[in-house]
Design brief:
It contains 9 helices and 16 strands. A hairpin with a 7-residue loop joins strand 15 (289-293) and strand 16 (301-305). The chain has helices at 7-19, 34-48, 63-88, 93-96, 99-111, 114-131, 138-144, 146-162, 168-180, and strands at 183-184, 189-190, 195-197, 203-204, 209-210, 215-217, 221-223, 241-242, 247-248, 253-255, 260-261, 266-267, 272-273, 282-283, 289-293, 301-305. It is an alpha/beta fold and 306 residues long. The radius of gyration is 24 Å and the shape is globular. The strands form 4 sheets. Strands 1-4-7-10-13 form a 5-stranded parallel beta sheet. Strands 3-6-9-12-14 form a 5-stranded parallel beta sheet. Strands 2-5-8-11 form a 4-stranded parallel beta sheet, with no helix packed on it. The model has no long low-confidence stretch (mean pLDDT 93).
Length: 306
């Protein structure tokens, strides 16, 4: 039988709420729902990739009905969450008087970007297929490569970010992060034909700018030089810029808002880079010696150049 919690515990918890109010959200506006945003994001993926995120086949004669119903449902659900976001954000008195209509306008504006996002994602899928000899088909790339889900969600969240919608873009990209292991901030500007191979552990910061035909591998960090300045750094360019046709190999770390990786450059694995490099650069560590010795016979060893 379920026992009633002791009054002493309830009193202690209430006391905690009073003394540690910075992590409460009491008597505030209703925030966007993480569960609702997750469902909306999944439904948006169904709209972006019709037939790939459904349990049954989708036929061409059903496309118009599918599109209409999907858009109607998404508009209704997303408009509710955007309205919550608008109520959360500081607003002018004029905007407060028309939050409902503003939420409707912003939702419509976002949905009009879906065809453009699809055109960009087709180029991302093409880049993944062309860039990975293990890929058997476009279908395999879309259904099996975690990168596609991560970049699709980021490209949608980026539109909302540019519309200055609070909370929702970040909820979307963190949902994708939890599913794919790829952490791309919605503020990052990413060009066409982008490909992250394998993907696990990739981090791309808010003010990062990435050109066209860029390929990166797992474990790459495109981050800030330092965050010790905290909120004083808000709005500043903190993350690197990667120009066109750059390849960045696994576990490379590139930091700093003034760092620019020139076009057609290659960054080798495990490189730590905090300054710019010109176009057509090859960035790698100088060769080191790898020492291999027997655990049983310490006098029997070999050195190799790597």
């Amino acid at each position: 039988m379920l026992k009633v919690p002791p009054q002493s515990l309830i009193d202690e918890l209430l006391d905690s709420y009073r003394h540690h109010g910075g992590i409460n959200h009491i008597d505030g506006v209703n925030l966007p729902s993480k569960l609702s945003i997750a469902q909306i994001t999944h439904d948006l993926l169904r709209l972006l990739f019709p037939g790939f995120f459904d349990s049954k086949a989708l036929h061409s004669q059903e496309l118009e009905t599918f599109s209409q119903k999907s858009l109607e449902t998404l508009k209704s659900l997303l408009e509710q969450e955007i309205l919550k976001s608008l109520k959360y954000q500081p607003r002018t008195s004029e905007e407060v008087d028309r939050l409902d209509s503003l939420a409707s306008e912003l939702t419509h504006e976002f949905l009009t970007h879906i065809p453009q996002i699809r055109a960009c994602l087709e180029k991302d899928v093409e880049a993944a297929y062309d860039g990975d000899p293990a890929a058997q088909s476009y279908e395999e790339v879309i259904v099996a490569y975690p990168f596609i889900e991560a970049i699709a969600v980021q490209r949608m969240a980026h539109v909302l970010y540019n519309l200055k919608i609070a909370l929702i873009p970040r909820i979307m990209t963190e949902w994708a992060h939890s599913r794919t292991g790829i952490d791309i901030h919605p503020g990052a500007k990413i060009g066409t034909h982008f490909f992250i191979d394998h993907g696990t552990g990739v981090v791309i910061g808010e003010t990062c700018v990435i050109g066209n035909h860029v390929k990166i591998y797992h474990g790459v960090t495109l981050g800030a030089m330092s965050t010790s300045g905290g909120q004083k750094l808000h709005g500043q360019k903190r993350h690197p810029s990667i120009e066109d046709h750059v390849t960045i190999y696994p576990n490379a770390t590139i930091l700093g808002g003034n760092t620019v990786i020139g076009a057609r450059s290659t960054i080798a694995g495990n490189v730590w880079l905090t300054h710019s490099v010109p176009p057509d650069s090859l960035v790698e560590f100088e060769r080191q010696r790898l020492h291999i010795r027997s655990k049983r016979d310490r006098h029997n060893s070999n050195d190799f150049q790597i």
